[in-house]
Amino acid sequence: MARIAVGGTFDPLHEGHKALLSKASELSRGGELFVGLTSDEMVRNKSHEVADYQQRFEHLLGFIRSLGIDPVIVRLDDAYGPTIHEDFDYIVVSPETHPIALKINSIRSKKGLKQVKIVLVDYVLADDGLPISSTRIKKGEIDASGRVLL
Hints:
It contains four helices and five strands. By secondary structure, it is an alpha/beta fold. The chain has a five-stranded parallel β-sheet with strand order 3-2-1-4-5, with helices on both faces. The chain is globular, with a radius of gyration of 15 Å. The model has no long low-confidence stretch (mean pLDDT 96).
């Protein structure tokens, strides 16, 4: 039974996040999907306002369940969560979080743990050809679907 990990802040939940979570959900069919959701403490240094943990948890859970998956959502108090001490088969990342996955495998290697296969999901682009991001949405440049607002 495959164990898949994916993580993030997921606020607002946009098309890029949905692509990432859809890929993770697809890989987890017949297995377990672990979603790390950053704690309120971890997001304090973000350059924009972030919804509280419970609100993000509910939106995230609702979306993943709409894909037919019942995930395990774990609170992340650091960038790695359970991936540096538990067995996982895959970690699903975006280009932004790919360096963290490489660091996870480096830490795992030093601990004598097997490497986690990294699945890279490319950015979803907005109508202007730039990546959809929470920062751009919060600045009012685009909406969660990538439509340009400015």
